[in-house]
Every structure is written in C-alpha cells, then in structure tokens.
Design a protein that fits this description.
By secondary structure, this protein is an alpha+beta fold. The chain has one domain: NADH Oxidase (3-Layer(aba) Sandwich). Helix content is 47%, strand content 14%. It has 7 helices and 4 strands, in the order H-H-E-H-H-E-H-E-H-E-H. Helix 1 packs across helix 5, helix 2 crosses helix 5 and helix 3 runs antiparallel to helix 4. The N and C termini lie far apart (38 Å). Bound molecules: flavin mononucleotide. Flavin mononucleotide (FMN) binds next to strand 3.
C-alpha cells in the first residue's frame, strides 16, 4: 500500500478508463474512506449515490439535457459527459443540509454551508486518494451543475448537489499537471 504523500503526488485526473468493472467491495472501501473525513461539528454533511451501469443511460440523458440547455459551455460539458459514459461507476455527492444554490439564505446559514461544503470536499478528496491507493482512477466532476435541477430531481431532491466522481481502472497515465509554485501561493509573515 502506498503512503499518503505518494498517493497525493501520484494521483491524476483520469479521463480514460478500461471497461473492467470495479468490484462492489472496492467501491465500499472508497466510500469508507470518504466518510472518515473530518467535518465541521462532525455533522458529516454528505450523501453518496452510486450510479452503476443499470442507471448510466439516464445519467447521460441528464448530462445531454445540460449540454442542450447551455450551448456556450457545450463543448467542455460534452467532453466530461463522454468520460462519465466510459467510467464503470459514477458517484454523485450531495450535501443534505445545503440550500438550493439560487435561494438567498441568512448569513449564519451561509457560514454553515461554507463549513459543510468544505467537509464534503474533504470527503471527496479522501475518496479519490483511497481510489489511488487501490490502483483505481478518478475524475472529480462539477460539470453536472449544467443540469443542476435535473440531477437534483432525479436523485437528490432537497439536497445540495456538490459534485460527481467518475471511478474505474485507469487506461491512461498522464504526466503531472502544472501547479503554481509555493512562491506564488504562500505568504509567510
Ligand atoms: C471541484 C472540481 C471540479 C472539477 N470538474 C471537472 C469536470 O467537470 N470535468 C473535468 O474534466 N475535470 C474536472 N475537474 C478536474 C480538474 O480539471 C483537474 O483536477 C485539474 O485540471 C488538475 O489536474 P489533475 O487533477 O490531474 O492534477 C475538476 C476538479 C475539481 C477539484
């Protein structure tokens, strides 16, 4: 098993998967890692919906609706949609405490949402690093927002959609993508 720093440094966004199915117990190991994440007040504001082959066609149909409704971003969303089509598993992640994003909310609730969204982000990062440790590839996806209402109605009514994660055996080994150096992003004072 690789150590944490190796998993962090070796992980890449994977956009090409083999068609080998991912065993259910591996998916559960990844989800166990997700729920081990820290969360504000230990609220654990996360819900996961695992889309298997059985419901993939409906998921893709909803992506297609998002593409049709947003011609200005269609090219990129189509790119993501085709990756989701190839991945054997897609996991949708919701914040069950979250408000519908287009509704204004009181400041205190907004603060809580900021806390909860960070907590869900930590769970997603745990998932993708655990997957890396198991030899699986992942893609963290927010293009699902292009059909926010469609996905919410389908699987997450009254929950806040945060992201989807494609999961499968990688069929590519991309080089490390560029990063701004510490000199650009860190201030010591
Ligand atoms: C919050 C978030 C949303 C993302 N959404 C998408 C997406 O919808 N489609 C996609 O192809 N990549 C998506 N990515 C992947 C990023 O493009 C990728 O992480 C970045 O280019 C750095 O590459 P790396 O992950 O291989 O280091 C997303 C990543 C994050 C963290």
């Amino acid at each position: 098993m690789m150590n944490v720093l190796e998993a962090i440094q070796n992980r890449r966004s994977i956009r090409r998967f083999t068609d080998t199915p991912v065993p259910r117990d591996m998916i559960e190991t990844v989800l166990e890692a997700a729920i081990a994440a820290p969360s504000g007040k230990n609220r654990q504001p996360w819900q996961f919906v695992v889309i298997t082959e059985q419901n993939k066609a409906e998921m893709l149909r909803l992506m297609d609706d998002g593409i049709a409704a947003n011609p200005e971003s269609a090219k990129w969303v189509q790119f993501t949609r085709d990756i989701m089509a190839q991945a054997p598993v897609n996991i949708f992640v919701f914040n069950p405490n979250g408000e519908y994003p287009w509704r204004s909310i009181p400041t205190k609730q907004r603060f809580q949402e900021l806390v909860d969204i960070q907590s869900v982000g930590a769970a997603i990062e745990n998932m993708i690093l655990a997957a890396e440790g198991l030899g699986l590839g992942t893609l963290w996806i927010c293009d699902v927002f292009e059909n926010y209402d469609g996905f919410s109605a389908w699987i997450g009514n009254q929950k806040q959609l945060i992201a989807a994660v494609s999961l499968g055996y990688p069929d590519e080994h991309p080089d490390k993508r560029g990063r701004k150096g510490l000199d650009k992003v860190v201030t010591w004072m």
